[in-house]
């Protein structure tokens, strides 16, 4: 507290204390429990998204095999040719080795981009689910007269009567039957775009932004 005149400060404190004490009283906790692990596994949108994401992951794995097989074959061929050359300089082998390195780097960049997009898709799915899930939890918590909601994973033991997972799951399935599993592509910052393209893009911007 800032230092004021001693008498006036004491008088103000005497009046404020009862009100402050009343404001600090916290009602008894009425808890609702939600099993979020179960919801993320069982909700209709969650299951549909999991299947589609699994398909995306398989496509990445298949593409990795497609890119890796010719690279592995060329690497083996170069190793055999190098042994046959017995350490003698060979310009053709050097060119092939350089081309192989370029091919490897290109494959790594492509796979890294695919994996980055896959992780973005996972996060996008979770974001969409949570945007609907948390308001539902709050609404059902209030309907049940609870003033606190906790995750089932953070509890040691509960009374089944306080578990509202079934209600939350039913409401989520009704409000969110599916989600988009393809995250929107991140826009390139304007500073990184070619200078000659910026005026045209600025002309296309909606008014008021």
What ranges have pLDDT less than 50 throughout 5 or more consecutive residues?
Answer: 1-20, 187-209
Run of helices and strands: HEHHHEHH
Structural class given helices, strands, pairing? mainly alpha
- How many separate helices? 6
Shape: rod-shaped
| Major β-sheet annotation | 2 strands, parallel
Radius of gyration: 31 Å
Our measurement of the CA-to-CA distance between the termini, rounded to an integer number of angstroms, reads: 45 Å
Strand order of the largest sheet: 1-2
Helix percentage: 55-70%
How many structural domains are formed by the residues? Answer: 1
Query: How many strands appear in the DSSP assignment?
Result: 2
How large a portion of the residues is in β-strands, by DSSP E?
under 5%
Mean pLDDT: 81
Structure keywords:
209 residues, mainly alpha, two-stranded parallel sheet, 4% strand, disordered N terminus, disordered C terminus
Describe it.
It is rod-shaped, with a radius of gyration of 31 Å. It is mostly helical. The model is unreliable at 1-20 and 187-209 (pLDDT under 50). It contains six helices and two strands.
In short:
This protein has 209 residues and is mostly helical. It contains 6 helices and 2 strands, in the order H-E-H-H-H-E-H-H.
